Amino acid sequence: MMQVSKRIAAARPLATTAMHERVDILRLQGESVIDFSIAISHFPAPASVRAAVAEALQQPLLPYTAVGGAPALRQQLAGKLREENGISAGAQHVIVTNGAKQALYQSLYVMTDPGDTVIVFRPHWPAYVATGQLLGLNIVLVDQPEVVDAAFLDRLPRAKVLIINNPHNPTGKVYTKSELDSIADWLRARRCHAIVDESYEKLIFEGVHHSLAACKDWEELGIVTIFSASQSYAMMGWRAGFASAPAVWVKAMEALQGPITAAVPALSQVAAEAAFAVGDVPELLADYRVRRDLVVDMFATQPWIKMPAPASGPYLWGDISGITRDTVGFAETLIEEFRVAIMPGEALGCPGFIRIGYIADDETTLRKGVQAIISLGKRMAES
Ligand code: PMP
């Protein structure tokens, strides 16, 4: 049999993308499937984005740009960082990437060496752990507390990097200014660096977004902040993201990105320019809020599931540990018997929980999918 390298032999496709692919294949076979496994928005990309890309297509040439992104785009994104995030960044602090995932891989690559310890809070986006494994890092999972304070931080092990997701997938937690101040103090004391994934910054229902890097010494502390148009602007397939990082790390990331993908496709850069100029997205948020409340209300009458309304984001996080801790099994029955896809908590480090991406469909389909989950949950609760 053909061998793969030792380096990649233990790696597996992300549980999230694998489930989504399974849905795609079932649909290709003519099956009708309701897909809550990841968050794919039913919203189109902003009109300004589509118009900018249509116009760019009329240009005769779409040349390579600089690896880290076209200079004008990097300058514009630095402006966004200063105005919206309070991060004192210039173009030299910005690298444009194929979504948050490439920014994450490249950040971890230039910040660590194999064997270094990286702290990730649980539940976690699967890509943090998968990326850490690809890079041979020692990933330490720590349960994310309701409130992050100095006492909690003091108990954390020594580490090279702390990864934070603010706002948080899947719980919707929005870190407060005072929590972020405590984290910055802890980074100063420990000489630990941080990666903050702010991909959901525009999807906040309750609370205010603050960036950890909105402090004078962010560059000295070594804080990388990651942004993506995927969720904030409903542009999952466009692969438009960027990172803000100390200039030395941006240079190192360019050296890594050059031979792999070179620059992000020119059309995606045009799209990124238009997207990150949009700012807030009140219409999208109002639509998501109605759906969030609809699902939370449907589950509120079910004693076997605990599902609070999240303060942000496109996911609902339900505790069904009262009926089972085998949520992989629960998800399997759900897709096999009811043709509804969800993400089992195991994929995010938490058996006994399920994650529902609730923004994909019309409301009738959403209700139908939730009703299927309720049917299975009730059946298990009564058996
Ligand atoms: N970060 C987190 C925590 C996410 O859940 C997602 C979307 N699944 C992203 C980033 C977006 O990643 P990308 O920009 O690569 O689409």
Task: Give the topology.
Blueprint: H1 6-9, H2 15-28, E1 34-35, H3 47-57, H4 71-85, E2 94-97, H5 99-111, E3 117-122, H6 126-134, E4 138-143, H7 150-154, E5 161-165, H8 177-190, E6 193-197, H9 218-221, E7 223-228, H10 229-232, E8 241-244, H11 247-260, H12 266-275, H13 282-300, E9 315-319, H14 327-338, E10 340-341, E11 343-344, E12 353-357, H15 363-382
Parallel strand pairs: 1-10, 3-4, 3-5, 5-6, 6-7
Antiparallel strand pairs: 2-8, 7-8, 9-12, 11-12
The structure holds 4'-deoxy-4'-aminopyridoxal-5'-phosphate.
Quickly describe the structure.
The chain is an alpha/beta fold and 383 residues long.
Give the structural class: alpha/beta
- Radius of gyration, whole Å: 21 Å
How many β strands by DSSP? Answer: 12
Tell me the count of domains: 2
- Quaternary: single chain
Residues in β-strands, percent: 5-15%
In the CATH scheme, the class of the largest domain would be Alpha Beta
CATH architecture descriptor name of the largest domain = 3-Layer(aba) Sandwich
- End-to-end C-alpha gap: 45 Å
| Morphology | globular
